[in-house]
């Protein structure tokens, strides 16, 4: 028996994006659920990152729609998508290498943030918030290190920490476990589980199937730019279309 997935947080309708002749995202109609850890999987080049970029405003889609909590956010600029409550991280980790770990969090907050209207105490408040988040992700002891001097896995945690500064209702992670050692993967998994228990919705792209199987309540599978299966992790794993997409049988 499958648990009902519940209220839809993010929905795309016939979303498409081509690069030249490559249909990176091809007529993708999807649903991801509020308060859940949603997974998006698929073979290399199946359009997962392009889908993320279209949703978060990094790339305008050619056609189709993106709805977040029933608001049409299609073609919104990235900062506006962020203010609507969607945070994200990148497949190729994006931190400011020469800034300290703490400063990476401080620059993640743009003036429109509510704390910006408190004037001088703002900085103290932001620093306090940044330190709380660093403690939460286990990077507090590295506060004064430059981001380029910490490990790749720690940089991924830092990127997640920076995304959390805006207090997003939904967080989109593009391969959080990619290139990260097992101990830090475990820490990322625990963090995602805890934040989700506190109400944060997640959409996670990941090739690490153990990560997806252990964490995700709902999984959508992409092949050549479009969803070919959706359901629980166990369900999609047994779907012949999914096996075909991965194995080419
Ligand atoms: N900026 C771009 N210009 C041209 N082609 C692109 C661009 N971005 C993506 N593509 C192509 O679009 C397709 C989908 O790529 P995308 O990166 O979205 O896949 P992915 O599912 O994230 O793959 P991976 O699992 O390897 O990260 C691929 O064929 C890729 O080569
Ligand atoms: Mg990708």
Overview of the molecule:
This protein is α/β, with parallel strands linked by helices. It has two domains: 1-85 and 168-249, P-loop containing nucleotide triphosphate hydrolases (Rossmann fold, 3-Layer(aba) Sandwich); 93-167, no CATH class. Helices cover 35% and strands 25% of the residues. It contains nine helices and ten strands. It has helices at 48-55, 78-83, 101-106, 121-137, 152-164, 182-197, 209-215, 233-238, 240-247, and strands at residues 8-19, 22-33, 37-41, 63-68, 71-72, 86-88, 170-174, 201-205, 218-223, 226-231. Helix 4 (121-137) crosses helix 5. It is globular. The chain starts with 7 loop residues before the first strand and ends with a helix. The protein binds adenosine-5'-triphosphate and magnesium ion (MG).
Structure described in brief:
The chain is of the alpha/beta class and 249 residues long.
Characteristics:
249 residues; alpha/beta; Rossmann fold; 2 domains; six-stranded mixed beta sheet; 10 strands; 25% strand; binds adenosine-5'-triphosphate; binds magnesium ion
Strand content: 15-25%
**How many strands, what sense, and barrel or not for the largest sheet?**
6 strands, mixed
CATH superfamily of the largest domain: P-loop containing nucleotide triphosphate hydrolases
- Might you state the CATH topology name of the largest domain? Rossmann fold
SS content category: alpha/beta
Strand order of the largest sheet: 6-7-8-3-9-10
Instruction: Extract low-pLDDT stretches.
Output: none
Count up the helices: 9
What count of structural domains?
A: 2
- Total beta strand runs: 10
* Mean of pLDDT: 91
What characteristic shape results from the CA principal axes? Answer: globular
Quickly give the CATH architecture of the largest domain: 3-Layer(aba) Sandwich
Q: Percentage of helical residues?
A: 25-40%
Rg, Å, rounded: 18 Å
Ligands bound, unique: adenosine-5'-triphosphate, magnesium ion
Task: State the CATH class of the largest domain.
Answer: Alpha Beta
H/E topology pattern = EEEHEEHEHHHEHEHEEHH
Distance between the termini: 28 Å
